[in-house]
Specification:
Blueprint (H helix, E strand, L loop, with lengths): L1 H25 L2 H23 L1
Length: 52
């Protein structure tokens, strides 16, 4: 069970890393910084919402 979760986490991380590299060639830096900040804020809100 734990290996399935680890494999899924590694797969998602790999896809996100590849997408980040791909988007870095397409979009300018300031737009990528905006997307990254929005994703981090959303992830933080989801984590805080889960605990309270």
């Amino acid at each position: 069970m734990c290996q399935i979760r680890l494999r899924k986490a590694i797969g998602i991380s790999t896809v996100c890393f590849g997408a980040g590299i791909f988007f870095s060639f397409i979009f300018p830096g300031y737009f990528l910084a905006f997307i990254e900040a929005a994703v981090l804020i959303a992830a933080g809100m989801l984590l805080l919402g889960k605990h309270h």
